[in-house]
Write a structure and sequence with these properties.
elongated, 10 strands, mainly beta, five-stranded antiparallel sheet, single chain, five-stranded mixed sheet, about 190 residues
């Protein structure tokens, strides 16, 4: 999802676009120099690397913009992942964060999902991140309908372990490993 080209634009919006928590401390100079995340050169609009930085330089920046070549090899690409709720009840959380091999590849608001509903999202990744997957799903409270008996598994690309949720303070987390290439982050919550 790209930043707005018109209207208000906040530091929190930039944080979210970079895959960070909305309320994380941020310096525009550091952000433009890639201190928090490498600036996606595929974005048609991107901030200048010269300082002092201004917030208006971020208008239209798309951290998940795909290269014109696309595909699943090399460089950064974009793919739409999904989370399927198969728990038998509604689940809800404030935010979702997904890490692939320790790197955040998706950070989104998380909607209330009825049983059987799918939440689709875009995610940035590189082939390296997906070649041997160690994936963590963090759901920030309030999380409704999940317990430590619920688990996640990857449904695309290859088999995965079952990752049971555990309470990590204000976050419910689940961790799975999935050997072999993953070309999408397709997660089922059971």
């Amino acid at each position: 999802m790209a930043l707005s080209t018109t209207g208000s634009l906040s530091m929190g919006d930039i944080n979210v676009e970079l895959g960070r928590a909305r309320t994380a401390s941020i310096s525009l100079d550091a952000a433009e120099n890639g201190s928090y995340a490498t600036i996606n050169q595929n974005s048609s609009s991107k901030p200048s690397s010269s300082n002092p930085a201004t917030i208006s330089e971020w208008r239209g920046y798309n951290h998940t913009a795909a290269s014109s070549g696309g595909g699943s090899s090399g460089g950064g690409t974009v793919n739409t992942g999904y989370i399927l709720n198969n728990t038998g009840r509604t689940i809800d959380a404030a935010f979702m964060s997904i890490k692939a091999n320790g790197t955040i590849v998706a950070y989104n608001d998380f909607p209330s999902l009825a049983n059987g509903q799918i939440y689709q999202f875009s995610t940035t990744y590189t082939n390296l991140l997906f070649s041997n997957g160690a994936f963590t799903l963090d759901l920030t409270t309030p999380t409704i309908g999940l317990t430590t008996s619920n688990y996640i598994y990857m449904t695309g690309g290859s088999n995965s372990t079952n990752g049971y949720f555990y309470n990590n303070g204000t976050v419910f987390s689940a961790y799975v490993t999935s050997p072999g290439p993953q070309y999408a982050i397709n997660i089922t919550i059971k």
